Amino acid sequence: MRKRFIIYGLAGWCMEILWTGLGSLLNGNIVLEGGTYIWMFPIYGLAVFFEPIHDNIRSWPVIFRGGVYTVLIFLVEYLTGWALQKLIGVCPWDYSGTPYSINGFIRLDYAPVWFGAGLIFEKLHDQLINIGLTKT
Predict the structure, then answer these.
(1) Which residues on adjacent β-strands are paired with residue 102?
(2) I need a surface site. Which of 42, 77, 87, 104 has the fewest CB within 10 A?
(3) In whole angstroms, how far apart are CA 1 and each of 4, 9, 54?
(4) Helix or strand or coil: residue 30?
C-alpha cells in the first residue's frame, strides 16, 4: 500500500502541475508556469483508499463512476482543507471569493475536473493491478 500511496501522490502532483501550467497559458503566460503544494502529495496519496470503491463499482457506467469519484474527491478536498486550516491556520488552496466556493475549501465548478481526475486514477489503479502492485 505504501508504494501505491506514493504513486498516487506523485500522479496527483503531476496532474496538478499540468493543470496549473495550462491555466497559466490560458492567462497569457507562455512560460507555462505550473505549481502545487507539498501538502498535496499526501492528499493525492489518499486515492489509494478509493481502490476498493473502484473494485466495487467497476461494472457501473462511466457517468456514475465519475460521479462517485467527484463526490469523494470533493469530500476529501473539503475535509483536508478544513484540517489544514485548523492545523496550520490556512488552507493552501483558498477558494474564498471565487464563484461556487464552499467555505473556500472546494469549488463546485471544478466538478468536471474531479470527474476526469477520478477516472484517471481509476486507470492508474488498473495499471497497478496489471503490473502486480495490488492484490486485486
Answers:
(1) 106
(2) 87
(3) 5, 12, 15
(4) coil
- 45-88: per-residue pLDDT in tens? 999 999 999 999 999 999 999 999 999 999 999 999 999 999 99
Largest Cα separation within the chain, whole Å, is 45
Q: What is the distance between the alpha carbons of residues 80 and 83, in angstroms, rounded to a whole number?
A: 5
pLDDT band at 134 (very low <50, low <70, confident <90, very high): confident
- Which grid cell sits at 30? 507562455
Instruction: Say how far apart CA 38 and CA 33 lie, in whole Å.
Output: 17
Joined grid coordinates for residue 91: 488552507
**Backbone dihedral angles phi then psi of residue 106, each to the nearest 5 degrees:** -135, 155
> How far apart, in whole angstroms, are the C-alpha atoms of residue 128 and residue 80?
25
Q: pTM (2 decimals)?
A: 0.90
Helix, coil or strand: residue 107: strand
Nearest CA to 126 out of 18, 6, 3, 4 is that of 4
- Stated as kind and residue range, the H or E segment containing 76 is helix 62-88
106: which strand partners?
102
